[in-house]
Every structure is written in structure tokens, then in C-alpha cells.
Amino acid sequence: MASSTSFMLSRGLPSNQSMKCYNDFGSKSCSSVFLRQSSPISVNIDKLNLNLSPKNVVRCSVLGVQNSHAFSVGKKFQLDDVIEGQQFDRGLLGNIFEVAREMEMIEKNSPGSKILKGYLMATLFYEPSTRTRLSFESAMKRLGGEVLTTENAREFSSAAKGETLEDTIRTVEGYSDIIVMRHFESGAARRAAATASIPIINAGDGPGQHPTQALLDVYTIEREVGRLDGIKVGLVGDLANGRTVRSLAYLLAKYNNVKIFFVAPDVVKMKDDIKSYLTLQGVQWEESTDLMEVASMCDVVYQTRIQKERFGEQIDLYEEARGKYIVDQKVMSVLQKHAVVMHPLPRLDEITVDVDADPRAAYFRQAKNGLYIRMALLKLLLVGW
């Protein structure tokens, strides 16, 4: 049924809704302009090739809209892309966590959800992944969307032929409504976002950041410990190359009276940029070499893997770092009863298998929470609040 609506043209509109429109400058028609829904939405018209003066406001009236989405668009999400931990403030984090709790109810009680029906998500992974890629794909499908996936884009895409990241993004955005990307270079996600006209989610960029992991980590801490203010967190392992701990530090800085302990071998200590940021934000931090002492004081022990792939040919340095700090039954014996052990996974030998049976071992619950956070982000980026 035809409808008539005025709206502002916007970024990242889904590929399965089309319309014809006219503007205030006469009879120039914008056919095949994409529309997310027939209610007013705001946008940046700079990326639209309409040959119109930027001084003018374009107003279009919908002559006909074919809407295959089963979920109406809500208030626009504050972010166009998810690239780094610094994008989030405390209020936004709390609101995202509320949506994540709603997503948990959907996953458990509404297996046939159609919130994202008609939307396509492309996953571009230039580095190996199990949890992140599968949880994003599961999140999209559980909300009724579809997935286009490249598991090893570094070898099995045109990148192997020398295609630039920018060209890949410009191509893939033509097939999808949102791109989830993991890349081996720090800063790659920011480059992709600068190029794309659809949302980009950073699923890890080399030793840079992993913001969705940090979101699920903070969400897990809140659920497991019961609070985020006044907590003590021990970050353990490869803190130089671990993008998860970097992003987590940025988010923990949003809360009050947090203290962070850094426990790492000398060759993989936390970098100065994170320490400086925490100091500027008034967050207490301390470096320690005594995991037992730190574990006895902390609400969260966040263990990480020593990342062999970041050492290149310096295998001697890797062997020096590996195995220095291990969470085992001795560490668990000093851990407080309410405290938890977390890990972004995969693990090697930095947490012994016999720890898994301890109820304070939260890392598999943590991985499950990644589904709810990613469901929430996909919903928010594509259809809003």
C-alpha cells in the first residue's frame, strides 16, 4: 500500500527496501534510494550522489515502499560504527547492557525472532577466530538476519591478490547492511569505517582493540560480581599484544574507584599509552609480579594467553614469557569467594583444566554473554533503540 512521508536521507540503509521519490527542486527523481522505514530518519547526505547543492535540504516523499522487515525502526543509536572502547560513556554502556538482557530473553524464549529479518551481515576475518565470528553469526541469525562470511580473508579473498582494504570494503558494502571485521593491522577498523557508508564493527584489529570483547567483559563482571564501581581487577598475561585488555582498561575507566593491577612478564608489559590514559582518568593502577598477592585482593582475575603469533621470529622471547603466570588451584585457594576468573579465550596452559569445575571460573559464561552483547549491537546499529 502506498504511503506519503517526508524524511531526511541517511547512512547505511538496508538493501531490500526501495522507493521512488521527488525533491523540492522539481521533477528530479531519486529511484532506488534505500529507506530503512517510512518514519523520519536523519542522515549525512554527503555520501549520496544526488547532484544536489549541499546548501539545500532534500525532502523526499515516498510514493511506494515495500517493507520486508518485521521490526520497526526505533530511535537512532548514538554510534555509526563500533571501533574502540573510547566511544562509550557510562550511560551508553548501561543502556546497551539493558538491551543485552532483553536479547537474552529473546534467545531463550523467542527462537523465531524476526527483528533483523531482511538484513545481511558480512563478516570479514583476516585473522583466525572461533568465538567472535560464530557468536556474531549466531547473533544475526537468532534475530532473523542472514550472513555472508569470509573466514580467512587474508588468504581466500582478493586481498591475496593485492586488493586494498578500502576497495574490499567498498565492494562488500554493496552486498550487505553491516560489516564485522577482524584484521591483523592496528587501525584497520578505523580505515574501514572511514571508507564505508554502512556500519562497521571492529572484531579485533591486530594488537589494537577489541571493543565488543570489552563490552561483554564488563557486562560479565556486572553480572558475576554484582557491581562495577569500587572493584579491583587483575589483568594478567600478554598485556602488550592483548587487544582485549587494552579495550577493557578503557571501559573500566568509566567507573568509580576502580583499581587495576597489571601482572605480566617483562617482554609483554602493558604499554604506556594505557597507563597514561588511566592516570588522566584518575584510575589507580599498579604493576606487580606476584600473582598470588594480586589474586587475593581482586574481584576479577582476567587471565590472557601469551600470543605467539605476535612474536614473529623472536621465539626465545615467547618462551621466556609463556608459563610465567598460571591460574591453578594454588591461585584459586587465595581467591575471594565472590571473585571470578575470566579469560577471553582461547586458552593454552595459562589456566589449568582443573579450575574449570570451580564456580568462580566464569570464562565459559563470559563467552556466552558475547552472544547477547553482539545481538544487542547488531539490533542497535541496524534498527536503533
Features:
385 residues; disordered N terminus; 4-stranded parallel sheet; 3 domains; 5-stranded parallel sheet; alpha/beta; single chain; Rossmann fold; globular
- Top-tier CATH class of the largest domain: Alpha Beta
State the CATH topology of the largest domain.
Rossmann fold
User: Strand count, sense and closure of the main sheet?
Assistant: 5 strands, parallel
Give helix and strand order, one letter per element, not per position. EEEEHEHEHEHEHEHEHEHEHHEH
CATH architecture of the largest domain: 3-Layer(aba) Sandwich
Sum up the overall morphology in one term.
globular
What's the topology here?
Elements: E1 6-7, E2 18-19, E3 33-34, E4 60-61, H1 90-109, E5 120-125, H2 131-142, E6 146-150, H3 165-172, E7 178-183, H4 188-195, E8 200-205, H5 211-225, E9 232-236, H6 243-252, E10 259-263, H7 272-280, E11 284-288, H8 291-297, E12 300-303, H9 315-321, H10 329-334, E13 340-342, H11 363-383
Parallel strand pairs: 5-6, 5-7, 7-8, 9-10, 9-12, 10-11, 12-13
Antiparallel strand pairs: 1-4, 2-3
Give the gist of this structure.
This protein is an alpha/beta fold.
Describe it for me?
The protein is an alpha/beta fold and 385 residues long. It has three domains: 1-72; 85-209, Rossmann fold, CATH 3.40.50.1370; 212-308 and 320-368, 3-Layer(aba) Sandwich (Rossmann fold), CATH 3.40.50.1370. The chain is 32% helix and 14% strand. The protein has eleven helices and 13 strands. The protein has helices at 90-109, 131-142, 165-172, 188-195, 211-225, 243-252, 272-280, 291-297, 315-321, 329-334, 363-383; strands at residues 6-7, 18-19, 33-34, 60-61, 120-125, 146-150, 178-183, 200-205, 232-236, 259-263, 284-288, 300-303, 340-342. The strands form four sheets. Strands 11-10-9-12-13 form a five-stranded parallel beta sheet, sandwiched between helices. Helix 7 links the parallel strand 10 and strand 11 (284-288). Helix 1 (90-109) crosses helix 11 (363-383). The model is unreliable at 1-13 and 15-70 (pLDDT under 50).
